[in-house]
Amino acid sequence: MPVHRALISAASVDNAHTRREGASTVRHKTPVPQREGHFTTMVVKGSGVMLVKSLLGSLFSHETRGIVQRTAVRYSHHHQAHDLVEEHDRQHDVEEVRIPVPYGEIAGKWWGPRDVRPIVCIHGWQDNAGTFDRLIPLLPKHMSFLALDLPGHGLSSRIPDGMMYHTLDNTLSLFHVMREYRWKKLSLMGHSMGSIISFLFTSTFPDKVDFYIGIDALKPHIADAAKFPGRLEKRLPQSLLADARNREKSEPPAYPYEELIERLHLGTNKSVTREAAPFLLYRNTRKSTLHPDRYYFTRDSRLKYGLGMGWDQAINLELAKRVVQPYLFIKAKHSPYYEERKYFDEFVELVKGNNPQFELEFVDSTHHLHLTEPEKVVPIVGRFLGKYWKEERG
């Protein structure tokens, strides 16, 4: 029986997508994320603005570059860069999914065969499923991937009013995904906070994970104990204020699209390039109803005031002893450790001694290496998957 998938609601627009498989042509209905406004047809000309020209080079990657440069659907609230992201998804037969949770739904992007259990991909703090848009198309086509928007991110529901976000709560989202698809195990790939969530889930429930890949955040970071009380004193009131603003239902500050790109670029210490930024902005912005030609961020502002795990290194090391399955960690050379380096090294030494299937790779890149320079990550991930991935049909 094919894997049951929670599809986007009937209000979505279905676009017929055609792709070649051998000598036959197979048609797929590819739901597009539910968005406001009407749609029209737009053709991107070669003499388009610099942003679009730059984005085209990114969107139409190795295997698709130079083919059609045309979007079939344009929503009125979209910037033209977002039309190209949608075209990119159609080119790769990506399917939007919605997974019910008690407070709403978790949104995701399903890549690859729909009857093969996918590798669940988890993004970093304040990012979304679009962070994997440039990596997944370069990985083997017979494998499936499900990139999620965590609660409060991307197109997923926010947690209820009056609550705070906590990293550990995201492990519950993985249980909701498992329940929806009736999976007994997960294969995980996470970046940054998503890598930490993958570690927490894997080490707590080792019998529920067959392998996991972490990118650029090894484990919960060790906070400076002397600074933590002041951080708590500052962030709790900030979270309360953000929650109050959410309940006012007022529109956040809006900016020209080019400024959104610049804010994302500089806000990530330039680890998200301007060229790659629209892949994240697509699921994270909306056109202002108050200011023409301006856009605002839609992620939940309460996310900014999280506190991390708050436990010490001894707990991380105890959890690390439980990670005995195939485990790949990729560290960017030009990205910070977010803690004293000794904690990283101590953790790696323990895992190496305890898990013969642990692999550590350093890559000459920055924090968002999988998004901005996927060609450097693909050989490492592809080799690991070649050794440990096993097809499981449902």
Automatic annotation (TrEMBL):
GO cellular component, one term: membrane
InterPro entries, per database record: AB_hydrolase_1, AB_hydrolase_fold, AB_hydrolase_sf
GO function terms (MF aspect): hydrolase activity
Keywords: Hydrolase
Keyword Protein transport: no
Domain AB hydrolase-1: from-to ranges: 118-374
SUPFAM superfamilies referenced in this protein's UniProt entry, alphabetically: alpha/beta-Hydrolases (SSF53474)
Residues annotated as transmembrane: none
Pfam family, one: Abhydrolase_1
Record flagged with keyword rRNA processing: no
Gene3D superfamilies: alpha/beta hydrolase (3.40.50.1820)
Family: Belongs to the AB hydrolase superfamily.
This protein's name: AB hydrolase-1 domain-containing protein
Organism: Anopheles merus
The organism's taxonomic lineage, starting at the top: Eukaryota, Metazoa, Ecdysozoa, Arthropoda, Hexapoda
